[in-house]
Amino acid sequence: MKVSFLQLGKTDQNYISEGQKKYADRVKHYVSFEIVTIKEIKKSKSQDKANYKKAEGLEILKHVSKDDYVILLDEKGKEYSS
């Protein structure tokens, strides 16, 4: 099994980068793990929010195959315990 963590754009907050590195180092002992940073799409003034989200979604889908099991992490999503 291979686990890929897809993220949109790079973060400029060091504590997030450090946390990602620490987590990746721990997980790599148990499963093949990679962090993939997807280049953010530049939003133009003429582009509406719906088209921007669609373009962003298409960029994400380039990294996902039909056989992948996808879990979306969202701050407004349902919370599960470990």
Q: Concise description?
A:
With 82 residues, the protein is α+β, with helices and mostly antiparallel strands. Helices cover 33% and strands 17% of the residues.
Question: What does this entry look like structurally?
Answer:
With 82 residues, the protein is of the alpha+beta class. It is built from two helices and two strands. It has a two-stranded parallel sheet with strand order 1-2. The two termini are 20 Å apart. The mean pLDDT is 89.
Write the layout of secondary structure elements.
Elements: E1 2-8, H1 14-27, E2 32-38, H2 49-61
Parallel strand pairs: 1-2
Give me the side-by-side strand order of the main sheet: 1-2
Largest sheet: 2 strands, parallel
What radius of gyration results from the CA coordinates? Answer: 15 Å
Percent strand equals 15-25%
Shape: globular
Low-confidence stretches: none
Count every beta strand, where a strand is a DSSP E run of 2 or more residues.
2
Class computed from helices, strands and strand pairing: alpha+beta
Q: Output the number of helix runs.
A: 2
Whole-number mean pLDDT: 89
CATH class: Alpha Beta
Keywords:
2 strands; Alpha/beta knot; 82 residues; two-stranded parallel sheet; alpha+beta; 33% helix
